[in-house]
Model the fold of this input.
Amino acid sequence: MPFQYKKVLLVGATSGIGRALADKLILEGSHVIAVGRRQQNLDEFVTQHGKSKASSAAFDIADLDKIPQFTKRHAPLSAHPDLDCVFLNSGIQRAFDFSKPASVDLDLLQQEFKVNYISYLALTTAFLPFLQQKKEANSIIYTTSGLAYTPIPRYPNYSASKAALHHFILCLREQLSGYNTKVIELIPPLVQTELNSASNQPELGGKGPKGLPLDQFVAEAYQGLAEGKEQVPVGTAKGGFVEGGFEVQRQAATQKVIAVMKGVMANGN
Done:
């Protein structure tokens, strides 16, 4: 099944699920602009797929003050006026134990929250003027996590950053309801990637839970994206989205609050 969007800027495309999804999108006919910090990985990506199907841009989304300049290079002012999908996928995950306050590295904690949440808001703000003026259908896709819904105490800050992003997505989707920009949330479970490898989680000694195989995740995630779903939970992340599930109920309650607020605003005007 082909993907609706034909030119995708994918942030966090040099490894893990981002790289795997970028490969899949190209296989299905989209051109992917891969964005990541590691130039060598970006060069390998373009070489593998060819310049007719792939291009790249080296950028660290933690450099918040440079985001406006970066987005201008990949908007109508430059070589990609046909960009119709921005896919935000970068993330870092670290363990924090607040029962041992002296062990909590606040600089690392702030960095994690900045990459996982604040940078997404900054990128959204920077790309939206371009996307909003497009007459054609376009989208912003956000990768959150099953931990946004059912947190794990080992990763309190990561879980909180993904929960914050999920709530932002719900609000943004409502705010953009009058535009051609679709707001999509991809919700992975634990997946077998370097995010949970021994190098990134050395304290686990390589004995942590293995998660869903990457190829299985990509197949299921792509199917949901290609079907045009606004919410794409995968694997164990589907639990809250079944009929009567906790997330279905919570979003129904959210819609009731939105309806009440619209009535209040209408009466106020």
Summary: The CA atoms of residues 196 and 202 lie 9 Å apart. Residues 106-132 form the longest helix (27 residues). The mean pLDDT is 92.
